[in-house]
Amino acid sequence: MIPIVTALDAVSVYTPAVRVPIESLAEPLGLTDMQVRLFRRFHGLGEISLDPERSLADLLRAAIDGIGALRGREHLVRYVVYGRAMPVVVPYPDNPLHEVCREAGLGHALAFTVTHQSCASGLLALETAGRLLEADPDPDALALVLTGEKAFTRDARLLPGTSIFGEGASAGLVSAHGPRDRMLSFACAQRGEFDTEFGESAERFQREYRPSLAGVIREAVDEAGLALDDIALVLPHNVNVVTWQRLCLLMDFPVERVLLSNVPVNGHLFCSDAFANYTTARERGLLREGDRYLVAAVGAGAGATFSAMVFQH
Amino acid sequence: MRVLRAERRVFPGPAVFLADDAHRAGVAEYLADLTGSAPAPELSGQSYGEMAAALVAAAADGPVDLLVLAFSIHDMWPGRATATYLSHVCPGTPLAFAVCDQGSAAPFTALRLVRDRAPRRALVVAVEQGWLPYDSTVPPPREHRGVALLCGADAGHRVTDLRQFPDVAPEAAAELAARTIADLSAGHDRVRLVLGEALSAVWPEDPDRVPGGQPLTGVWWRLADALAEPGGLVVVGEYDRELRYLCLVGIEVR
Amino acid sequence: MTAPEAQVDTELRPRVVEAMTEVIARLSERDGPVTEDMDMADELGLSSSLGLELLLEVEERLGVQIDVENMRTDELRTVGQLATFIASHCRPW
Q1: What is the CATH topology of the domain spanning B2-152?
Q2: Which of A277, A312, B90, B204 minimizes the number of CB atoms within 10 Å of its CB?
Q3: pLDDT at A276 over 90
């Protein structure tokens, strides 16, 4: 993949204030007591943001409102790219994306959703935004990358044996020429053979998960012209803690450099984990100027996509 | 960027996978959760995985590097990462994703994204199926139809220009379309228009105006005919009234 | 790269084996005996999620916390290998 220059200018994350402990989800999700204990003990899950009072549009709106850098510059936003794990979330022809764009003064932008890479669709949206800007003759053009989802159906609530989804949204302002954070590389590997059409292969998927993720991480690091040890911080998809512990052992990478503290707090925020973790990293001063960091995401649930992106802060 | 060929199909329904009771029950639950209602007792629509797989098999001429699926109305397996599945069944295991939530502008955006990435070979697959388990304010398409455009860097009919205009008011669409078509046509002796129904005001006397009923695939379906007839510039244009996108693309047919 | 061998708690190990074999017998729905040389995935049919359940049950039974963070699952295939790991990589809860 030809690398392009893309800079992440500002990021905002919104999670509803209403949080519930995973124990309270046992009955609605049909989890046994043992399954809940496993989720706590090894997966590191604790609480989930779940607010039935807030619609998808509410989540997206709140994320956009959080980008102070957008105010007064709405006219520069040419593209709004929404990366979404669940491909369809409202009845046809409802369109919360365009509703929210109009309200935010972004009705003049080309807005669309990219999907079908499950939770890796957010990184794809970021990369797509970068390419649109690169091809745009206006050097001041901006793009807004959105992620955000509701846990509205079973497949959007639980990844059996793996994770529990939480609700949240994020917005990121992207430019082609900003000083930071600059995207250095993007690697994406799709494994459509795990689609249910080819039979149940949960065990094989579990076995291949870590090597596949390790592969795409190595590819992104290589493409950025770096070595794995050059990566100061990893912002993971918050699917669970045990997967990352084991992945670090496999790759000989220190797990201390993987930001896992949001797992017990948010659960798995679909495509928003990367941005939530980025925000936490900034708040804690975990990134110094010049640091190279890696963002990883895996889209699973019938057909799998493994993605990794390297940035320089 | 070039368009090598267009493959088009009408598909009968319902989707083959719906014959599996367990699978049908699963998607029925998801579809019901979209509207917060009870699962429909029967499902009759099509599956974009099934439709697009057939189109891919017909259109691919070898390994493909990029596959973009464009849709507006959803299908009967709405939770499936269909493009990822297609990546596996398409020669070349291409990078694959879907573009949606953009009405009839989606296939134009898909073409634009292909152009920006400049792969050696790409497939843009536009699909729409015509059945929903709930009432919608917009009538579904008349038939389950799909069109696959095989695009390439080095062979085929050259894409001269692609323009997308967001936020165009219905009363301004015809005039903006006419100006843009004039602009795209400059320097071309012979220009053929393939315009969606919403743009009929532009060239009211155009006998080849694409009839309504297939908002996403209509113009691409007709493009397949236009590509078969050599010579001149073909301009494909569509206007989405709800989302206010005017899109036009020029293709020089050899 | 293997870490230096941690000290195996020789008093604990047989209790780990006992707990493991009981739990595995139940989880794998096996009739026959479970012995230390058996491969947990291939012979006993333990999936990765059942593997985690096994660890949790052993922890709860013995009142210990296993150092899961350092568990190289690819190198711990048999009952005996896992028992040795647990007996050398845990502490009281």
Answers
A1: Peroxisomal Thiolase; Chain A, domain 1 (3.40.47)
A2: B204
A3: yes
Is residue B65 within 8 Å of B119, Cβ to Cβ? yes
Count how many Cα atoms sit within 13 Å of the Cα of residue A3 in the half-sphere of its side chain. 18
In this model, does residue B204 exceed pLDDT 90? no
pLDDT tops 80 at residue B209: no
Minimal CA separation from A253 to chain C, in Å: 12
Task: Give alpha helix (H) positions in chain A.
Answer: 26-29, 33-41, 56-65, 96-103, 121-135, 202-223, 241-251, 263-266, 273-283
At A144-167, the pLDDT tens digits run 999 999 999 999 999 988 999 999
Q: Is C73 an interface residue toward A (CB < 8 Å)?
A: yes
Q: Give exposure, B55-69, as e/b (b: 16+ Cβ within 10 Å).
A: bbeebbeeebbbbbb
Is any Cβ of chain A less than 8 angstroms from the Cβ of C49?
A: yes
A203 touches C at CB < 8 Å: yes
**CATH assignment of A182-312, among 3.40.47.10, 3.30.360.10, 3.40.250.10, 3.65.10.10:** 3.40.47.10
Query: Between the CA atoms of C3, C6, C12 and C18, what dihedral angle is there, to the nearest 10 degrees?
Result: 20
In this prediction, residue C1 carries a pLDDT of 44
- The per-residue pLDDT for range C16-72, each reduced to its tens digit, is 999 999 999 998 877 888 999 999 998 998 988 899 999 999 999 999 999 999 999
Domain layout of chain B by residue ranges: 2-152, 157-252
Q: Note the pTM of the prediction, 2 decimals.
A: 0.96
CA distances from A6 to A108, A183, A222 (A): 22, 5, 18
Residues from chain B contacting residue A111 (CB–CB below 8 Å): 101-102, 166
Q: Which of A118, A128, A304 sits opposite B113 (nearest CB)?
A: A128
Helix, strand, or coil here: A35? helix
Could you say which residues from 9 to 38 on chain A have a Cβ atom under 8 Å away from some Cβ of chain C? 34, 37-38
Residue B205's pLDDT is what? 66
Chain B interface includes A182 (CB < 8 A): no
Cβ of A193 under 8 Å from any chain B Cβ? yes
Give residue A255's pLDDT band: very low, low, confident or very high (50, 70, 90): very high
CB contact under 8 A, A87 and B132: no
Task: Tell me which chain B residue has its CA closest to the CA of residue A190.
Answer: B84
Residue B161 has a pLDDT of: 97
